[in-house]
Design goal:
Butyryl-Coa Dehydrogenase, subunit A, domain 1, four-stranded mixed sheet, Butyryl-CoA Dehydrogenase, subunit A, domain 3, alpha+beta, four-stranded antiparallel sheet, Butyryl-CoA Dehydrogenase, subunit A, domain 2
Length: about 375
């Protein structure tokens, strides 16, 4: 069991206060598929976007476990799941690779503004034809003097419509080789980059995403994140952070959903007694509790092992798989427990269910995670 310090608990409290304020009006924003610009202004004022970044770039200098603990608090208190997802994307998609792999020049130029939220970040990995098959990437980057020229397209880019800077992964070597990808930091107004319109989607509607198109888009070679052909290493680091940080937010959301369901079961009367007294209901709540706790344990245990330098390939895949599928199960159980009320938009639980499905797809589908685990078992 992790013993959190007073400073960590204070940051968690700050995140919960922010989440409660940022979630106001979430149903209206979800219906209108609107990003919470006012909520973004609030989180900028707290400094929480700089959680894992060094103080020299305006960050709070916190480690991975603390960052997760605070983000779990955001998920617990904020009912706008799309906003929380955009916050996580901001931290892990651009800031994390910059701090770990960026040159001093790139860090000095961009990281303070990523840390304070004055620049919104995104990353572009997935392509229309490739899906989860990163090795099938077709977007190319060809060296031309002091620049690279990018051509191709990306799909499902979270924060794409609102992003100021985007970490783009492109092919710079032989397709199919892990040593064939390079990461580039691309500014939104770079000639040759076209940001598509927001794409309507099932859930996380307040976290906009879009396609990106590159047509002879010239990016300075100085904007390579890491080194040429090391993009897979950058991506691997980012995806670990993405899974741990994004899905710990889901744990917070599940915890809130569980508590809300328990309270409803204690107060809702049917057939002359509280519905919590019915074994079918109490069993469902017990399963929800186990789902929340098992997800939390997998994520924090994996983060601890990762921080210790251990190989967590299976652990990351299992954590993602378990948490994403538990999140769907807990959301569906809550809808069923609330009955007709759970099915209405007013209670927000149907929105939770729609939001939860995304977790089984992004960062590698559930099937991909099972295949990864199987490979590591020697199958």
């Amino acid at each position: 069991m992790i013993r959190w310090t007073e400073e960590q608990r204070e940051l968690r409290t700050l995140a919960e206060e922010l989440g409660a304020a940022a979630g106001e009006g979430h149903l209206e924003r979800d219906a209108g598929r609107e990003f919470g610009h006012a909520a973004w202004k609030l989180i900028r004022e707290t400094g929480l976007l700089g959680l894992p970044f060094d103080e020299r770039w305006g960050g709070l200098g916190q480690d991975l476990l603390t960052t997760m603990y605070v983000l779990e608090g955001l998920g617990y208190a904020c009912r706008d799941g799309g906003f929380s997802f955009s916050v996580s994307t901001q931290i892990v998609s651009t800031g994390v690779p910059l701090q770990r792999f960026g040159s001093a020049q790139l860090k000095d130029r961009y990281l303070p503004r990523i840390s304070d939220g004055s620049l919104i970040g995104a990353h572009a990995i997935t392509e229309p034809s490739g899906g989860s098959d990163v090795m099938a990437m077709r977007t190319t980057a060809v060296r031309d003097g002091d620049d690279y020229v990018l051509n191709g397209s990306k799909a499902f880019v979270t924060n794409g419509p609102i992003a100021d800077v985007i970490v783009v992964y492109a092919l710079t070597g032989k397709r199919g080789s892990p040593a064939a990808l390079t990461a580039f930091l691309v500014e939104r107004d770079t000639p040759g980059l076209v940001v598509g319109p927001p794409v309507a989607k099932m859930g996380l509607a307040t976290s906009p995403f879009s396609e990106l198109f590159f047509d002879d888009c010239r990016v300075p070679a100085a904007n390579v994140v890491g080194s040429p052909n090391a993009g897979f290493l950058v991506m691997d680091h980012v995806m670990k952070w993405e899974i741990l940080c994004s899905f710990v937010i889901n744990v917070g959301e599940m915890q809130h959903r569980l508590e809300r369901s328990v309270e409803y079961a204690r107060s809702r009367t049917q057939f002359g007694q509280k519905i919590g007294s019915f074994q079918s209901v109490s069993n469902r709540l017990a399963d929800m509790h186990i789902a929340v706790e098992s997800s939390r344990k997998w994520l924090y245990d994996t983060a601890q092992r990762y921080s210790n330098g251990e190989n967590v390939t299976i652990d990351i895949a299992a954590s993602k798989l378990i948490t994403s599928e538990n999140n769907v199960a807990v959301a569906l159980a809550a809808v069923q427990l609330f009955g007709g009320y759970g099915y209405t938009s007013e209670y927000g639980l149907e929105k939770d269910l729609r939001d939860s499905v995304a977790g089984t797809i992004y960062s590698g589908t559930s099937d991909i995670q099972r295949q990864r685990i199987a490979r590591m078992l020697g199958l």
